[in-house]
């Protein structure tokens, strides 16, 4: 009974109890909040997927997408006969990613359970592995550790490690294979190309060299960079954070190989020229020297060498001073080699003939306070003998017969004071002062090579007017199919007259008997000029030079030799430069198959009289 009464009472309480009622506005508030959040998420998604897609894509690409450069094979440089002068060989370069590597503390080893490809945050590398890698690469352990720990500032100013770091460039594939065999995680190799120069120092100043990235630094490697380098290809890939390539994401663009550059240089003649020049520089204890060999008919450069030289295969050991291309960039006062130009000018202008007698007296001539002197008195002499004996007074008198403007124009016609436009870096135009500023003494001294500065290449080119019919052709380092049109400077008759005088210079009584070649008639002119040192002509420093043609009956070669500051007893051009000409011409004419134009007994040496020497 009691239980039933309680039950009835409970029901009465439930009947009259107040039940909570959910207000309609609260429902709409909650629903609105949920819908608002959904709309916010939807808007954010649309913003990220539509309006800000490019930014996010760039961020993702920056972390995982990489465009790999596919190096093109650099074009080969060859001589005129197709012999290689510069070639590219495949090599390996070792790299790693310090940002993805963690060097373990000393004594700690990598877990045995770890394997390449595990999803660890960083690749663990032990100190022992770092030491083995450094030893194999030939660098110090401390240097390698420093590279692994090196940091740089990012855009946010934070210190971060590099994603990519070269450790050793350009090693042989066999060495790279041994490095990878160490199985140090995070170390990779990449194929590159290294330039190799078979001729070494013999061809250094012509070909030049490239840097470690394959960019031309000197010579034709630099001037023909666009032609030789080709165009690199590309490969776009996705990499994980350890550097593994996951997949290719675009079509591979193959590289375009560089073109082959064929020069006019003949490797055999170049070797002869460099060998003889180097011997002369070494034997005379000279500061340096240069030689140029031109094809007399076309203007092609068959050889151009300098001493001292350098080995382009060893970039790290190149002395910057040895990279100077003296034949094209260095200027010197040519001395008596200029006298042939002066005589040609006077002959062509009708001022003199080969047999015109010029009185040189006792070998002195005064112009105002200045005095011009001959190294030895010639007296009354024909124009032919003035060249043969190398008379300064005689050359000066012929120059003073000329109008200043006409003389200046003639110098420019043969290429003095003008760039040769060979395309070679650092080419000097030389120096010829404006004719309006010339005083009589300056006009006179220019006749025998003072007051005008030229390069060895310019002197070789100027002598082209004597090699044929009086024309001068552009100088070129590119092999020609046919000679370029020439510029007529003197008449063919004048050219023949000067050739005869140049041959007399190499005969007894001339200053260049050491230039003679067995079996061939040759001609040329010696020069011995004082050097300007600190604005004053030195009493000891000289430049000995010789420029000549061979064979004189039908010139095929023009050879210009310059020796800078030989020992004082060998300062004369006839002693130090003429023998270089003789040896180079003898070998070159035989290499080219030029038939002899004289008997093998044609060598004529001075008799009892002393050898004629000149100094201007």
Report on the structure:
By secondary structure, the protein is α+β, with helices and mostly antiparallel strands. The chain has two domains: 69-107 and 125-262, Penicillin-binding protein 2a (Domain 2), CATH 3.90.1310.10; 267-591, Beta-lactamase (3-Layer(aba) Sandwich). It has 21 helices and 23 strands. The strands form eight sheets. Strands 2, 3, 8, 9 and 12 form a five-stranded mixed sheet that branches. The protein has a five-stranded antiparallel sheet with strand order 14-13-23-22-21, with helices on both faces. A three-stranded antiparallel sheet has the order 1-10-11. β16 and β17 (370-373) form a beta hairpin. α12 packs parallel to α14 and α13 (383-389) packs across α19. The longest helix is centred in the first third of the chain and has 28 residues, at 24-51. It is elongated. It starts with a helix and ends in a 25-residue tail after the last helix. The model has no long low-confidence stretch (mean pLDDT 86). Its EC number is 3.4.16.4. It is found in: Cell inner membrane; Membrane. The active site is at 336 (acyl-ester intermediate). Keywords: Carboxypeptidase, Cell cycle, Cell division, Cell inner membrane, Cell membrane, Cell shape, Cell wall biogenesis/degradation, Hydrolase, Membrane, Peptidoglycan synthesis, Protease, Septation, Transmembrane, Transmembrane helix. The chain crosses the membrane at residues 25-47.
């Amino acid at each position: 009974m009691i239980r039933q009464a309680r039950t009835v009472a409970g029901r009465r309480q439930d009947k009259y109890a107040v039940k909570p009622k959910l207000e309609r506005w609260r429902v709409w508030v909650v629903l609105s909040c949920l819908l608002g959040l959904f709309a916010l998420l939807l808007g954010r998604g649309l913003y990220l997927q539509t309006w800000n897609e490019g930014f996010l894509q760039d961020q993702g690409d920056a972390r995982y997408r990489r465009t790999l450069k596919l190096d093109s094979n650099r074009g080969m440089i060859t001589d005129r006969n197709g012999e290689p002068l510069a070639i590219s060989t495949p090599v390996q370069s070792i790299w790693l990613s310090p940002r993805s590597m963690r060097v373990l503390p000393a004594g700690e080893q990598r877990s045995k359970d770890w394997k390449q490809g595990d999803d660890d945050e960083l690749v663990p590398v032990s100190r022992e592995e770092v030491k083995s890698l450094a030893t194999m690469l030939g660098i110090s352990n401390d240097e390698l550790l420093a590279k692994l720990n090196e940091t740089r500032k990012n855009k946010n100013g934070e210190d971060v490690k590099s994603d990519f770091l070269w450790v050793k460039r350009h090693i042989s594939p066999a060495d790279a294979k041994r490095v990878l065999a160490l199985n140090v995680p995070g170390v990779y190799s990449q194929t590159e190309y290294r330039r190799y120069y078979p001729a070494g120092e013999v061809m250094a100043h012509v070909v030049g060299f490239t840097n470690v990235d394959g960019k031309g630094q000197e010579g034709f490697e630099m001037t023909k960079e666009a032609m030789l380098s080709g165009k690199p290809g590309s490969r776009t890939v996705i990499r994980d954070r350890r550097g593994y390539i996951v997949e290719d994401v675009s079509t591979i663009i193959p590289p375009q190989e560089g073109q082959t550059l064929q020069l006019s240089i003949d490797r055999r003649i170049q070797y002869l020229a460099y060998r003889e020049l180097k011997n002369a520089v070494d034997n005379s204890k000279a500061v340096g020297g240069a030689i140029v060999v031109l094809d007399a008919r076309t203007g092609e450069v068959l050889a151009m060498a300098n001493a001292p030289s350098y080995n382009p295969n060893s970039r790290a050991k190149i002395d910057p001073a040895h990279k100077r291309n003296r034949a094209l960039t260095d200027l010197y006062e040519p001395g008596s080699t200029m006298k042939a130009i002066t005589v040609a000018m006077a002959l062509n202008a009708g001022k003199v003939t080969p047999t015109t007698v010029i009185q040189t007296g006792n070998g002195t001539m005064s112009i105002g306070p200045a005095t011009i002197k001959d190294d030895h008195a010639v007296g009354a002499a024909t124009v032919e003998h003035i060249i043969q004996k190398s008379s300064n007074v005689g050359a000066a008198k012929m120059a003073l017969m000329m109008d200043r403007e006409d003389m200046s124009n003639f110098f420019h016609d043969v290429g003095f004071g003008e760039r040769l436009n060979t395309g070679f870096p650092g080419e000097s135009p030389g120096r010829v002062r404006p004719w309006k500023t010339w005083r009589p003494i300056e006009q006179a001294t220019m006749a025998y090579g003072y007051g005008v500065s030229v390069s060895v290449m310019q002197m070789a080119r100027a002598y082209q007017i004597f090699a044929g019919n009086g024309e001068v052709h552009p100088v070129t380092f590119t092999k020609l199919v046919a000679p370029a049109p020439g510029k007529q400077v003197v008449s063919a008759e004048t050219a023949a007259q000067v050739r005869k005088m140049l041959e007399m210079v190499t005969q007894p009584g001339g200053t260049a008997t050491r230039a003679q070649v067995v079996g061939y008639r040759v001609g040329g002119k010696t020069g011995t000029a004082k050097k300007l040192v600190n604005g004053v002509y030195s009493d000891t420093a000289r430049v000995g030079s010789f420029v000549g043609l061979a064979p004189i009956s039908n010139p095929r070669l023009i050879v210009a030799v310059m020796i800078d500051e030989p020992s004082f007893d060998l300062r004369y051009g006839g002693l130090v430069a003429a023998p270089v000409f003789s040896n180079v011409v003898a070998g070159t004419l035989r290499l080219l198959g030029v038939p002899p134009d004289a008997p093998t007994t044609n060598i004529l040496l001075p008799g009892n009289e002393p050898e004629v020497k000149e100094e201007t």
